[in-house]
Structure formats: C-alpha cells, structure tokens
Specification:
Blueprint: H1 14-31, E1 36-39, H2 44-52, E2 56-66, H3 73-77, H4 82-97, E3 100-106, H5 112-127, H6 139-148, E4 153-160, E5 169-176, E6 179-187, H7 194-209, E7 214-216, E8 230-240, H8 243-268
Parallel strand pairs: 6-7
Antiparallel strand pairs: 1-8, 2-7, 2-8, 3-4, 4-5, 5-6
C-alpha cells in the first residue's frame, strides 16, 4: 500500500529534517559498501521532497477500486457489461452452493479469538508458497490489535452454515474514514470462488454500505481488472552509490516510466464496464 514516508512531528520543517535523515542514511550505506538505497510504495506527497534530494522516482503499477456513489451491490454489478455481471453473479452463487456465507466483523464485534484465527489463516496461506511467501507479521501483531486498533480492522469471515463452529476462511482489511486497504487472507481448505468473494466482492459490498470511497486491495495480478479495479501508478525511490548502476538508472528511468504508464493505460482499456455506466437499471 502506498504511504511510506518519514513520520515527522507537526511544526517541524519536513524538508530540513528529511535532508538530515537522508544524509545519515547515505553515510551508513557508503560505510557498509552498499550498492544502493530504495524506498518502496512511497507517499506521493513525500515523493516530491525526495526527488529534490536527488532520488530517482520509478513508476510501478497497482490497482484501486473507486466508488462513484453506488447505493448497493446491485449498482456495482450494473456498472459492468452483461457478460461480467453474469460472471460475478455466478461466482457469488458458488458460496451458497457450498453452504458458505460471509459475515463482516468490525469495531466491538471483533474478538481476540477472531484475530487469532486470522493469524492461523495468514500463516497457512504463506506456508503454501514456501520461501517466496510474504510472512511479515507474527501472532502478537494480530492479537495486539484488539486493545487499541480494532476500530480500524475489518474481518470478513466465511462460515459453513451446516457445520457451524469456527470460520473456514477469512480476509483482513484496514479502514480509515473513506479509505480501505487490503488484504491478507487464508482458508482451511479449497473452496470455489471463496477468494474472490472474501477479498473483493464482500469488501466492496461492505464499502458501499459503510461510506468507503476508495479500496486499495494490495499487490496482485490483473484478474482484479475483471472485478472493476482500475490500474493506477505507485512509486519507488532509488539512489545508487555504484556509479555503473547510477548511470543505468539515469539513462533509462524516463523510458521505463513511460512504458509503465503505457501498461497502466492498456490495462484500463480492458475493464469490462458497461458502455454507459450511468444508465438506469
């Protein structure tokens, strides 16, 4: 999720203090013979500050869902062409065909047990991908959210209506005001279309019902485009101490960024929206 920056107290000159911190980091990198320094998923406002300090900005591509003012999930469905509406409805029906239902939990409804269960799913999901997984968080992170941060958490838990008991799958999202960010997820088994429902359709439905205007679903592949997410730019920042790497970056970064924008534009031409999204049903 884009947002990386130095956290600086109000009233302090951000540009002055950022320059001090960058000089200290530069010194550390040079002392340890590091080839380069990078910051990923940076705050767009911070990007300008760092470019002034000599960092090269590298454009990348991610996804976002913007709510134009939908009043219901049906409104969302009718923004698509006929074929994609049918596909999404079919994927939604897969839950009931497997006796599954998804229940949202937020604020005071979130329990320590649910956060424990989310960690279990998160751990299991990462184990499926071995050393290439992204297991950055531990159990204490999830359970530690209970006391002070559960008002920022949304859990979407899938239950077997016949078996009852604990969830069979769950997604984890963060929210603040009109913004929502996702998502970690996992399940106890293979369930047809559960991923799409827990990570895209149910979050979008909850977002519409709760005044969320923008949903950043995190990194991933282009299947998000089929669900109404549009491609958007994110940025990383780079400084190379190795002169050969620095020359390569300086020479090619403009062309790289131009090609990445072409990719973003191309992806957005494939979103299966209806020709007239504002047409009444």
């Amino acid at each position: 999720v884009s947002g990386y920056r130095f956290i600086i107290a109000p009233g302090v000159d951000e540009r002055v203090l950022t320059a001090v911190m960058v000089r200290a980091i530069d010194g550390l990198c040079r002392q340890n013979n590091m080839a380069g320094l990078s910051f990923n998923y940076v705050d767009p406002k911070w990007l300008k500050v760092m470019e002034e300090l000599g960092f090269a900005a590298w454009k990348h591509q991610s996804y976002v869902w913007d709510n134009p003012g939908f009043a219901s999930f049906e409104d969302y469905l009718w923004s698509f062409d006929k074929n994609q509406r049918r596909n999404i409805r079919r994927e939604r029906r897969k839950l009931s065909e497997q006796n599954l239902e998804i229940r949202p939990f937020s604020d005071e409804a979130i329990t320590v047990d649910l956060l424990e269960q989310m960690y279990t799913f998160y751990e299991r999901h990462n184990e499926q991908f071995g050393p290439w997984a992204a297991k950055y968080l531990n159990r204490e992170f999830f359970t530690g959210l209970f006391d002070d941060f559960r008002h920022r958490v949304l859990l979407l838990a899938a239950y077997d209506r016949e078996a009852g008991g604990k969830p069979v799958g769950m997604s984890f999202l963060l929210r603040k005001g009109e913004l929502m960010y996702g998502r970690y997820w996992g399940s106890s088994g293979d369930y047809d279309s559960l991923h799409f429902n827990a990570c895209y359709y149910s979050p979008i439905e909850w977002a519409i019902q709760n005044g969320v205007r923008r949903f950043d679903p995190g990194i991933g592949s282009s299947h998000k485009v089929r669900r109404g997410f549009t491609a958007t730019a994110n940025w990383s920042l780079h400084r190379f101490y190795d002169p050969n790497l620095a020359r390569i970056m300086t020479r090619h970064i403009g062309e790289i960024n131009r090609m990445e924008q072409e990719r973003i534009d191309s992806l957005n031409q494939t979103v299966p929206f209806a020709e007239n999204r504002s047409s009444p049903r």
